[in-house]
Amino acid sequence: MNKWKYRGDYVLVNLFKAGVQKRFKEDFGKLNPTLVPIPLSATRQQERGFNQAEAIAQLLDLPIDDALTRVTNEKQAKKSRQQRLQSNNPFQLKNEVQGPILVIDDLYTTGATLHWAAYLLKRGGATTIDSFTLIRS
C-alpha cells in the first residue's frame, strides 16, 4: 500500500482489481451507483502523480463523478485521531449529484473524510450514500 500510495507506483492498483470487483459485487452489485472518489489536494495529486481513490473507482465499470474538490492541503496522516475527528470540512461540492452515490477512498481511519463527503453529497442531491474503502486502519 505504501509503495502504491506514496511512491507513485500506479500499476500496483491492478493487484487490488479482483478483490475490489468481487467485494463491490457482493456489497453493492444491485445498487448501480455513481462513484465519487475522494479528491486529493492539487499538491498531493502532483506529488503522487495520481489519485488513489480515483484509481480504485476506475477498476469498476461504473460512471465516475468528480463532484467534490478539496479546499485544504492538510495532511491527514500527520494528525491524531482526535484532530481528525475535530477537523473542518475539507471539501466543496463542484456540482449537484443524483441517485445513489458510492464514495470511494483508499483508507478509512476515523470516518471523518467520508462524513464530510457524505454531508455535502446529500445536500447536493444524492438519494443514498454508501462508501467503499480499500483498507481500514
TrEMBL record:
SUPFAM superfamilies: PRTase-like. Belongs to the ComF/GntX family. CDD domains: PRTases_typeI (cd06223). Gene3D superfamilies: 3.40.50.2020. Residues 48-136 form the Phosphoribosyltransferase domain. It comes from Salinibacillus xinjiangensis. This is Phosphoribosyltransferase domain-containing protein. InterPro entries: ComF/GntX_DNA_util-trans (IPR051910), PRTase-like (IPR029057), PRTase_dom (IPR000836).
